[in-house]
Amino acid sequence: MPRRALLIDDSRAMRMLLGSQVRALGFEVTEAGDGSEALAALEGGGDVDLALVDWNMPVMNGLEFIRAVRAHDELRKLCIVVITSETELSQMQAALDAGANEYLMKPFTRDSLGSKLELLGVLHGAT
What we know:
It is a single chain. The chain is 41% helix and 20% strand. It is of the alpha/beta class and 127 residues long. It has a five-stranded parallel β-sheet, with helices on both faces. α2 runs parallel beside α3.
């Protein structure tokens, strides 16, 4: 069964760039423009192994999305990686405290993304 990733970013260009990298790592990809849209997709039965979420988005930001996902028993095992240009250590810690599994800084390479996903056990040797 293919692995599935949900890309959550308000930038269409970023979703396209990230989508090409994640597809190259062997994932099927769905997209959402903000946390609220992504949460609705997950609550609607979207079968996803991995969520890659931006920090700064309108409607529902990345931190709010993480907290909402972790409040749902059926979504608690979802692997969440925050991908953002935010560099404040306090924000990284807030995301991890809220339930993010990992944090990746923009800009990043497919190899750095693949290594992070291997570390989390979501990807096995496909980098």
